[in-house]
Amino acid sequence: xxxxxxxxxxxxxxxxxxxxxxxxxxxxxxxxxxxxxxxxxxxxxxxxxxxxxxxxxxxxxxxxxxxxxxxxxxxxxxxxxxxxxxxxxxxxxxxxxxxxxxxxxxxxxxxxxxxxxxxxxxxxxxxxxxxxxxxxxxxxxxxxxxxxxxxxxxxxxxxxxxxxxxxxxxxxxxxxxxxxxxxxxxxxxxxxxxxxxxxxxxxxxxxxxxxxxxxxxxxxxxxxxxxxxxxxxxxxxxxxxxxxxxxxxxxxxxxxxxxxxxxxxxxxxxxxxxxxxxxxxxxxxxxxxxxxxxxxxxxxxxxxxxxxxxxxxxxxxxxx
Length: 320
Fold this sequence. Notes:
Elements: H1 2-5, H2 10-22, H3 30-43, H4 48-67, H5 79-95, H6 101-160, H7 165-183, H8 194-209, E1 212-218, H9 225-244, E2 249-256, E3 260-267, H10 285-295, E4 298-303, E5 309-316
Parallel strand pairs: 1-2
Antiparallel strand pairs: 2-3, 3-5, 4-5
């Protein structure tokens, strides 16, 4: 303020303007603020006409900004602001002198930005809001279609089979799996990944034998011929557990990493003695162990009478 005071007292006028502004006398601060700007421009060597033009432009743009107008017909621009700004620009171009052409160009560009900028920003926001509304509407329609196609039909089937608890349990379990698969889908279609194929196999075993299969995973991978062999072996292990364990629930856990695929099938049922299994029963030796061996992996079956059974299927990945 002290330095600007040397410019014909502009610092004093600016100090008074800010003092009034901080005491909430906003409109009273306008006059000393304009005076400070005029004195500063005069100190820079501008003529009286150029200073008057700058003041008119500032007043006009301030009116436009205060009105919040735009190019929209429902919020028209301030006519008084436009007239004042146009008069200032015309005066600056005609009577401002040779050294004010750059100032005039800056005033025109600033005015256009002040007028067109908010309008363009408002248009962008409206387009974004319309896009969000459209996306939400499509999501609601998709949810409504999913509920109609699956949940409502399953509830109707449950009402028809109210006297069959096993059937109701199977229907509810299948609906739960469908909803989980839909809600937490990662872009893969059903059956084209390890977890997707295991989910399908678990559903088939549940419907055939009326047991509950709890499936958890710690990673997933695409389904190729070798991984498909792991899925088929795991399905055979699930089916054996459902048929012979005597337990209503079987646990399945799948892991997939860059170097290996592992699947564990476990039940806490009756268990068995491997040496007592007849030689003509090929479920373990061929459908599980032999299948994994041919795919380049290994299967480990751990069981004892009364202690349940665990089948571990391991397939190395990245083999030549």
